[in-house]
Design a protein that fits this description.
- By secondary structure, this protein is of the alpha+beta class.
- The protein is about 30% helix and about 30% strand.
- It has one domain.
- A four-stranded antiparallel sheet has the order 2-1-3-4.
- Strand 3 and strand 4 form a beta hairpin.
Length: about 60
Amino acid sequence: MVPIYRPSLSRRFMTERGNDRRYHRSADSALKAEGVLWVPLGTGWTADAEAVARALKGVA
């Protein structure tokens, strides 16, 4: 199991597919990776649809 790292400037998005977690600096690379998209919420991550939509809207 890959550890879950805290959000940072280089880890602005996280995708999860099975037990494989990948961290992304840009929304484009995160969306291309497929899987569940997670965005920062405080010091952790959330996959809540509204929070993801807000994060993607803020990037666009």
